[in-house]
Each structure stands twice: as structure tokens, then as C-alpha cells.
Amino acid sequence: MFQRLLICTSLSDGLQRLVHFVPSLASGGIEHITFLHVLPVDGRGIPRVDEAKVQQVKEQLSVAKADLPSGVEVEVEVQAGRTDERIAAVAKANQIDLIVLGSESRSLLTEKLFGSTAVALCQSSLSPVLILRPQLISVYTVEELDLRCRHLLRYFLMPYDGGKAAEYLLAQVKKYAERRPPSSLQECLLFHVIEDSDRIEKLLLENRIKEAEARLATAKTDLESTGLQVNTKIVLGEPIPETLKAALEYDITAIATASATMGKFAEWSGPSFTGELIRRSWHPILFFPPVQ
């Protein structure tokens, strides 16, 4: 599905542990991995880079180059500057098709006040972004992390309501699924939440359910044409809580989503669905950016 990976690590987010799991990642079809660490630059006076620190980090991450599986390449980049800008530049230079980074859960207000590399990257990236929770990566045992790396992109939960973002997400997953290796993506759950309310008449609710069933059936057929196993589910309730609940109940490896407003000014009047998933989900979030 994805073949060229960019793993961005702060060296305190747990993602630096992935240097020991290159063969596990490669088993899912990954052929090229770039590990990136971005050093902060002192903004006072002439920017200076600590060359000794650069060399130290390169040596730490270069462990990933030992005993590589046949056909797999690994590069290590240590750069200085603004994190989201350096990630975007390295991704473009190395023709990356998936960026992996860690991001702690936070509120929209905290994000607006102090910023978020994940959100900034989702706004500007041309490549899909996989967001992991550092707290989880840090506490996995070696055996657990090995299994997680092997199954990193095996089963997607895809929120699907038939809207523009949902149709774009469907098209993107289908595109990548059509050229996936056998050991990569295997299954998808198309998940639709109908917002329930005591004010909605029974007949109107029944019609909404029938319309949702028809949309899901069409989307299922479309995805199944790639050889994927596709399941569908309709529930009543609030979209964010129900989606997070479904992520716990089903054996998914990531929630796949897309948005045109996540992290932008429009979120002040109403947080985007994708933005809230990224802030609240403990499951990995695979974000497909809109066409720039």
C-alpha cells in the first residue's frame, strides 16, 4: 500500500524505537524508510547547529541500517529548523508516500495556543500522515511492537457518510489498495453514524437508515473490487463517541479519515470531525490530505 516511509521522531516520543523494527515494517511492503529528527535552532542572533548533537543522533538512529532485509533501504536525516517545514521538505525530497509521527492528545484550545506539529503537517502535507500516540509506542514490549509494526496498516475503520470528504477518503483508500502488497491492507469497516434525537420522527429516521444502507452498499462494492474484505455498520448516536467506541470493539489497526477544514480558522466555530479524532483517539489516525 505504502512503500516509502518517513518516520519522524523527537527521540522522546517512542518512535525512535522503530529503528529496531525495520524488518517488521518491511514485512508489510515497505521498501524505503527515512528516519528524521529535527533539532531546534536558537533564534537569537545567527542560527547555530550543534554538530556534535547531529552526529550523536545520526549514530543513534543508524542502528536501523543493520541487517536490512533484501530490497529495503534506510536513510537517516538530522536537520535543524521548524519541525513541520523540515518534515515537509524531507518528504518531498525523498518521494515519501506516508509520514509517521507521534502526537499527544490535546484540546483544541491548547492546540491553538501552543501549536501542533501534527495539525500543521496535516494542513500542508502532500503525503498521507499516520499519527501515533507516543504513550502507547513507549510502553509496548518488544513482542507487542513487532506485531504492531507488522500489522500497521492491516484493518481500517473508515467513517463514511457519503459526503465529499467521505468520497475522497474512499477514492484514496481504493487507489492505494489497488497497488498494495499481499501482506498490507486486508480489511475495511465502513462506519456510518446517524445522529439520533428525540425530535426526529420515526419515519424520517427509518428513511435516513435506508439511505445510509444504500450508500454503504455502493461504497462496499467499490472497495471490494480491489480484493479487500469490506464490512459495514450503521449506528445511532454522536459521530465522535460512536467512532471511538467502534475502534475499541473492532480489531482495527487505524482510523482512516480526510478533511478540508481540520486545523483551520473554521474550526473555531465548530471543530472538524477529523480534528477531534486526532485530538481524542488512542488508535492510530491515517489522514489523507486534500489535493493542494
What is the topology?
Layout: E1 4-8, H1 22-26, E2 32-39, H2 51-61, E3 73-80, H3 83-93, E4 98-102, H4 108-114, H5 117-124, E5 129-132, H6 134-139, H7 142-150, E6 155-159, H8 164-177, E7 187-194, H9 202-224, E8 229-236, H10 239-249, E9 254-258, H11 273-280, E10 285-288
Parallel strand pairs: 1-2, 1-4, 2-3, 4-5, 6-7, 6-9, 7-8, 9-10
Antiparallel strand pairs: 5-10
Helix pairs in contact: 3-5
Short description:
The protein is of the alpha/beta class and 292 residues long. α11 links the parallel β9 and β10. α3 crosses α5.
Structural class: alpha/beta
Order of helices and strands: EHEHEHEHHEHHEHEHEHEHE
Summed over residues and divided by their number, the pLDDT gives a mean of 87
**Helical segment tally?**
11
At the fourth level of CATH, the homologous superfamily of the largest domain is HUPs
Computed Rg: 20 Å
- The tally of structural domains comes to 2
Instruction: Based on Cα principal axes, name the global outline.
Output: globular
CATH class of the largest domain: Alpha Beta
Number of strands: 10
Low-confidence stretches: 107-115, 263-270
Rounded to the nearest angstrom, the distance between the terminal CA atoms is: 21 Å
